[in-house]
Design goal:
The protein is of the alpha/beta class. The chain has a 7-stranded mixed β-sheet with strand order 4-10-9-8-7-5-6. The longest helix is centred in the C-terminal third of the chain and has 19 residues. Helix 3 runs antiparallel to helix 12, helix 4 packs parallel to helix 12 and helix 14 packs antiparallel against helix 15. It is built from 15 helices and 14 strands. The protein has 2 domains: 150 residues, Aspartate Aminotransferase, domain 1 (Alpha-Beta Complex), CATH 3.90.1150.10; 241 residues, Type I PLP-dependent aspartate aminotransferase-like (Major domain) (Aspartate Aminotransferase, domain 2), CATH 3.40.640.
Length: 419
């Protein structure tokens, strides 16, 4: 059989919807200036679907810093991997400032968030499989893929359940002792789908009873949580208990790239052993200098986070007052849980986009169980209270129609012609 024959027979969980949904629900094109209003399929829409939490993506100071760096250095500089020819004073400066911001001894820049997390896990764990990993059952795909790269035994614990975690730690500790290895616990600061905040205080308490190291993926917490925006560890006052802190530039920093912060000897080990970074071209200069500007603004402009949370609180309280189930969210991530079939979800989403001009992400089976619908809204500091009020009214109207069964057609409708 030809290697590629299988692709025509099984397109995969998402690929099966390609013909009917590509360009509208999957790979949609948002065009125009990044912000609360963008063009989609030829019309202006109110956008609740980009992770531009602090509104920095289109901020004049950010745009100028990016443009000036690009004009001076271009996108190619520096050429080569950091260890060979890609090191600059700006990369080092950014790492030092990130370490200070996260109250850690050192930090190390990474080219991408997803790749960075998989590589961190691969690098931290013993290649002979002697270490044991314990992770939250709702951990992000990058964590799951990182664990698959190791030969280590791994146990999942029920989401944010400290009793479950302790049971897993007992088994993990015993196994690690037998094998001459250690234990790594992995969780997220903010879970990107549900908006739930990781139980970092509970995990920190268990450190008093068990010997393990803690790795936290705080992609959605960086910039949005904590007094200064340093993340979920700062929010709970346990930043010193996080042994390895991971943050990405793809959310609050409105850029690309990531970093890891820890004790200096840990960062030194990662620098000299993370294959994805050793053999990868250095982060381009405009992105590095641009990240410095973004970090400066996050540190010196608390109003950015204050504006964000004004919008978050107005949106979430308004939805709850109208009877919507937002699940366990304690963060900016705002999931709206509804009951309905895939066809109902499709019709509802079509009406939100075509009649109300509201664009937000929709999650249905097979990503979540049949009969469930999630509309995932991402509030930003760039939204207004008027945007919130309009959205609340629209969601109230479509929920009434859903409850009345008006979206059930028995089949997925034809999508609008794409521009």
């Amino acid at each position: 059989m030809d290697l590629f024959d299988k692709f025509s027979k099984d397109a995969g969980p998402l690929g099966q919807y390609q013909k009917m949904a590509e360009g509208y629900f999957i790979f949609p094109k948002l065009e125009g200036e990044l912000g609360p209003r963008m063009m989609f399929n030829g019309k202006e829409r109110l956008i609740w679907s980009i992770n531009n939490y602090l509104g920095l993506a289109n901020h004049p100071e950010v745009r100028k810093a990016d443009a000036d760096a690009c004009a001076k250095y271009g996108m190619a500089y520096p050429m080569g991997a950091r260890a060979m020819s890609g090191q600059t004073k700006y990369h080092v400066q950014l790492e030092n400032e990130l370490a200070e911001f996260e109250q850690k001894e050192a930090a190390y820049l990474l080219n991408f968030g997803y790749q960075g997390m998989t590589s961190i896990i691969d690098c931290l764990c013993d290649k002979r499989g002697r270490d044991v990993i314990v992770y939250d059952a709702e951990a992000h795909a990058c964590i799951l893929d990182g664990m698959r790269m190791t030969n280590c035994k791994r146990f999942s614990y029920a989401h944010n359940d400290m009793e479950s975690l302790e049971k897993r730690l007992i088994n993990a500790t015993r196994l690690a002792n037998e094998q001459g290895g250690g234990v790594l616990v992995i969780t997220e600061g903010v879970f990107g789908m549900s908006g739930a905040v990781g139980n970092l205080k509970g995990i920190a308490e268990l450190k008093k009873k068990y010997e393990f190291r803690l790795l936290v993926d705080d992609a959605h917490g960086l910039g949005t949580m904590g007094k200064t925006g340093a993340g979920t560890g700062e929010h709970y006052g346990v930043q010193d208990q996080i042994d390895v802190y991971f943050g990405t530039f793809a959310k609050s920093f409105a850029g690309i790239g990531a970093f890891v912060a820890s004790d200096k000897y840990i960062i030194d080990y990662l620098k000299y052993n993370m294959r994805s970074q050793i053999y990868a071209k250095s982060l381009p200069m405009p992105m590095t200098i641009g990240a410095l500007k973004r970090l400066e603004m996050i540190r010196t402009m608390p109003e950015l986070k204050e504006n964000l949370w004004n919008i978050v609180n107005a949106l979430q309280s308004g939805l709850r007052e109208r009877g919507f189930n937002l699940g366990r969210t304690q963060s900016c991530v705002t999931p709206v849980f509804l009951n309905g079939s895939v066809s109902e979800a499709t019709n509802l989403a079509l009406e939100l986009r075509e009649h109300y001009n509201i664009f937000c992400s929709i999650v249905v089976y097979p990503v979540i169980p049949k009969g469930e619908i999630i509309f995932r809204l991402i509030p930003t500091a760039s939204h207004t209270l008027e945007d919130v009020e309009y959205t609340l009214n629209a969601f109230g109207e479509v929920k009434a129609k859903l409850d009345a069964g008006l979206y059930e057609t028995g089949s997925i409708p034809k999508f609008p012609d794409l521009v």
